Amino acid sequence: MIIAVASGKGGTGKTTVAVSLALSLAADPPTQGNSSPLFLDCDVEEPNAALFLNPAIFERREVGLMIPQIDLERCTYCGRCAEVCQYHAIAVVGKKVLVFPELCHGCGSCTLNCGPGAIQEVLHVLGTIERGWAGPLEFAQGTMNVGEPMAVPIIRQLKRWMLAPASDTVHTDRRPVILDASPGTACPVVESMRGVDFVLLVTEPTPFGLHDLRLAVEVARDELGLPVGVVINRDGVGDRGVDEYCAAESIPILMRIPLDRRVAEAYSDGGTLVGTLPEYRERFHSLYGTIGELVVDRKGGRAR
Length: 304
Known about the structure:
Layout (H helix, E strand, L loop, with lengths): L1 E5 L7 H14 L10 E4 L8 H4 L2 E15 L9 H5 L5 E4 L2 E4 L9 H4 L6 E16 L2 E8 L7 H12 L13 E4 L6 H7 L4 E6 L3 H17 L4 E8 L5 H8 L4 E6 L2 H8 L4 H4 L3 H20 L5
Parallel strand pairs: 1-8, 1-9, 2-7, 2-8, 9-10, 10-11
Antiparallel strand pairs: 3-6, 4-5, 6-7
């Protein structure tokens, strides 16, 4: 079963929940398949789960997009490449062909439509993906190079690397997979959610938390058609707006985590929720079981 942990608002405790869920399952794997979980940090612009998991990395790859490179000796400057590029990443000006890597999405239309065969594709590196182990927990993350504008290709290649059906790295029908998405509701979050079984939304009981929770629900449930559930972090410090919204929208509140200074102090020192308060391990294990039941009920069959 693949669970994306997301939040419309930054700073709600999304990584805290994702790391705690993964560590709890790694300490006591579910009986089905008896496999330890896989953790993917898909917040490639600011990955931070490694600060708490301290994984030992054993493999790293550069990833990016294949962008056009023009052979000026073969180019006839017909402008066909610029015509078919919907992202305006190529411009033909007189006897010059300008390529803008920041705009290119690597779709390959220019190469396919170049009659003289003057275009070949070369790798434009956007960042790296890497994997390793944090004790019994398998770990992978992506990191975008400073100054690059597109996170989606890195997330897509990270997921393909670790979750591809032909891969012997992970069998998602037999082990939990926890994806830590970036905050917000932009394209990187959509790419992280795509193809998962369940979206666990972490929020806080404040007007700001409610506003961004609504946006996240619109993306995950209404646009992508995914089942969602909510974890309320720092419960008790705000108002009842989140509770009333979830009740009205029939969204289950699966866990409440009260504001606790001990957790905040441990977090600031690189500690984890379940390391500080071990009693939460069982709660997170039960949370995973509840999510599994919700997925089964929705699909009308066995949870993957």
